[in-house]
Amino acid sequence: MNEQLLLGQTLGFGADPFAGGWQAATRHSAHGAVLVRDGRIAATGEASDLRRAHPRATVTDYGDALILPGFVDAHMHYAQTGMIASWGKRLIDWLNSYTFPEEMRFGDPAYARGQADLTLDIALANGTTTLASFCTIHPESVTAFFEAAEARGMGVVAGKTCMDRNAPEGLRDTARTAHDDSKALLEAWHGRGRATYAITPRFSPTSTPEQLEAMGALWAAHPDCLMQTHLSEQTDEIAWVRDLFPTARDYLDTYEKHGLLGERGLYGHAIHLEPREIDRLAETGAAVIHCPTSNTFIGSGLFDMAGLKARGIPVGLATDTGGGSSFSMLRTMAAAYEIGQLRGTPLHPAQLLWLATEGSARALHMGGQIGTLTPGAHADLCILDLASTPAIAQRSTRAEDIWEAVFPTIMMGDDRAVRAVWVSGRPV
Ligand code: GUN
Ligand code: ZN
Q: Could you say which ligand is closest to the alpha carbon of residue 300?
């Protein structure tokens, strides 16, 4: 039996650190170990105990480095890797000027595969082992992403981004083709290996009511799939939605009316919400995905983490590249912290790390499978060097506890802090 034993500091969670307080939720060991067998975590515990119990396991000693679950990026656009960091526009102009021209290129399977490979390699270098990605309207773009992930043993979520209006010629499908192409893709990929399909209407402004209806019918027929879209990101976007859907009660209602509100729904951004929208999200158990570097980069607004968590709404954390300005979930946690500060509700490092791992995993309905060091989960791991640069090292050496040791890496770290990454029980 091939067993691998990873030694280092370990950090995991027994509960949501927003719910009962981070102290009780956290499991930290300064001399911990993770036992990996057949691609899964077989045990997590004290190094001395696991060494004694598994003397034949192959040992990799990461010293003082911190063994975490791999990061889970719950909302991103792999087709926007090529135009990340495009200057000076707000959402709708940004889409038209930068995003749509780039997404147009993904009808070419070779280009799509190249960008999928590139994006997944950048993600892995940053310690991200699962991504939920929008693709483009081209079915080829979905196939390319799932194939690239499968080649790396990664569990990913993806779907064909559907648009049948307010997008340029060449980037529009129809209600019928969106339904039929998505159906063929989900039948091919959902549940194949570690792949999960998400039905993906881009956002209400780029779908007719007929297309939203067709997507809702598809989700009703395949309720085990996820559904991902965007919600209430910018105020001018919301005003546009009001014009396009004059009978809708609010933005969320444009989805709700068409069968696109449910527990397995993922709503990116969700910044400028009405009380009714918050009530309905809470009642249905739908998840919202916080994309902090995107929200500052495109100038969208300040997400209300404290308020939405207090309502029991599942929240995931995400880069939203290329609207987001970084592939790093460390940088993303730092931005979430800064937005919390601007709202007067700073997040504890335990809450940030939980969001980037288990919180996102739960939002994707993959709790217990990823984003955790619990036995039975996929052995997707990120090992962080907590002294990766001189600036970080001089601070972390003064640390008096694990939080002071890890917070400088959250705030100042990047891919240099990622000492090693394991996917499905193998180092990459
Ligand atoms: N809303 C609709 N499409 C997009 C997108 O690609 N990025 C972001 N940030 N918001 C969107
Ligand atoms: Zn997005």
A: 1
Domain boundary among 312, 327, 342: 327
Distance CA 140, CA 109 (A): 6
DSSP assignment letter at 364: T
Contact 58, 120 (CB under 8 A): no
Pocket test for ligand 1, best of 73, 75, 77, 294 (most atoms within 8 A of CB): 77
Residue-wise pLDDT tens digits, 102-137: 999 999 999 999 999 999 999 999 999 999 999 999
What is the per-residue DSSP string for 269-315? E--S--HHHHHHHHHHT-EEEE-HHHHHHTT-----HHHHHHTT--E
Are 76 and 8 in a shared domain?
no
Residue 364 lies in a domain: no
Neighbours of 197 (CB within 10 A): 26
Is 70 exceeded by the pLDDT of residue 1? no
Same domain, 245 and 319: yes
CATH of the domain at 57: 2.30.40.10
Domain range holding 170? 71-327
Ligand nearest to the CA of 231: 1
Model confidence pLDDT, tens digit, residues 324-358:
999 999 999 999 999 999 999 999 999 999 999 99
